[in-house]
Design a protein that fits this description.
Layout lengths: L3 E10 L2 E11 L4 E5 L6 H8 L7 E6 L2 E2 L2 H6 E4 L11 H11 L4 H14 L15 H13 L5 E5 L7 H16 L3 E6 L2 H7 L2 E6 L2 E7 H9 L2 E7 L11 E6 L4 E5 L5 H10 L3 E7 L4 H8 L18 E2 L1
Parallel strand pairs: 3-8, 3-9, 6-7, 7-8, 10-15
Antiparallel strand pairs: 1-2, 1-4, 4-5, 9-10, 11-13, 11-14, 12-13
């Protein structure tokens, strides 16, 4: 049995179909990524899971039973649009949100101070929320989300506004919670975060689920015939080469799709013969960013896939 099951959720706003018959399963004890571009339908899906929006059709089940108040009591939810009371003091804010979830007293106070120290905010515990930077407000919102020790944690764009050090700290805490058996769902348009952290992913585009499954299985499937290359030099000669199907430049790395899976050594030989400085050459390797762009390009036709090939979810 899965921890959560999303079954055929649909939500429209006037004529806009924000979520279109979305279905997926969230396994127990996992980090689950809901990924897609901005405006793809991720936040609307989460809000239906949380009961903030009522779906036009479909339902969400908690361990086989339709979700209700019991689920809300067990969940910590970090919304994309932050909701802190700007005139309240930091520590008072944390204790207030903990009390709303049934946690109060000495234990909640101690836990709040521990998290403030960990996020280097203990000296700001008596400051008003409005006096904090955007990044520090984000850290307070995250602490408020997990302070009551929820069984389920839903994070909508959790790394927004954070510097690399605090982003790494957030990731550490999320991984710690996974080790404790928590179910973590996080929504993001940043593929590198999803790739580094998630066990399972669902990709949503224009309200439709276009890919879902175990991340390792997805990467294994799409990595066939693919080479991830980091280099110095001019590889423009590959654009017209008969063994190359497609080239995609991602800045620091280049993805090369070959016509056949056994042509990687031939490609490497050509690069060396052309005096290309090969810094990294990973055959049968592909990033989640590359898969995302292939399946959900800016417009139909930019991905190399026909429109009809993108309509239904690919199960891997």
């Amino acid at each position: 049995m899965y921890a959560l099951e999303v079954k055929n959720l649909t939500k429209t706003f006037d004529k806009l179909v924000a979520v279109d018959n979305a279905s997926f399963e969230v396994p127990e004890g996992s980090i689950f990524g809901l990924i897609g571009r901005n405006g793809a339908g991720k936040t609307t899906t989460i809000r239906m899971m949380m009961g903030i929006y009522l779906p036009d059709s479909g339902e969400v089940a908690l361990r086989g039973v339709k979700v209700g108040q019991e689920f809300k009591n067990q969940v910590g939810y970090l919304p994309e649009e932050r909701g802190l009371y700007k005139k309240m003091k930091v520590l008072d804010t944390l204790l207030y949100f903990a009390e709303l979830k049934g946690k109060s007293g000495r234990d909640a106070h101690k836990k709040a101070e521990e998290y403030l120290k960990r996020f280097d905010l203990y000296d700001r515990r008596l400051s008003k929320i409005e006096d904090l930077s955007k990044g520090n407000q984000q850290k307070i919102q995250f602490i408020a989300t997990i302070l009551h020790d929820p069984e389920f944690i839903i994070l909508d764009e959790p790394f927004s506004g954070l510097d690399p050090i605090n982003t790494n700290l957030l990731k550490e805490i999320i991984l710690e919670m996974k080790q404790r058996g928590k179910v973590i769902i996080f929504s993001t348009h940043l593929m590198d975060f999803a790739e580094k952290m998630c066990d399972h992913v669902v990709m949503i585009d224009h309200g439709k689920i276009i890919l879902k499954g175990l991340l390792n299985d997805i990467k294994s499937k799409y990595a066939q015939r693919n080479v991830s290359l980091t280099y110095d030099g001019d590889i423009s000669f590959l654009k017209s080469n008969p063994i190359v199907d497609k080239i995609a430049d991602y800045g620091n790395t280049t993805g090369i799709r070959l016509k056949e899976s056994n042509q990687s050594q031939q490609l490497l030989k050509m690069l060396i013969e052309r005096n290309i400085v090969v810094k990294k050459f990973n055959a049968n390797d592909i990033s989640l960013q590359e898969i995302f762009i292939e399946l959900a390009g800016n417009e139909a036709g930019t991905t190399g896939l026909p429109t009809e090939g993108r309509k239904e979810a690919r199960n891997v």
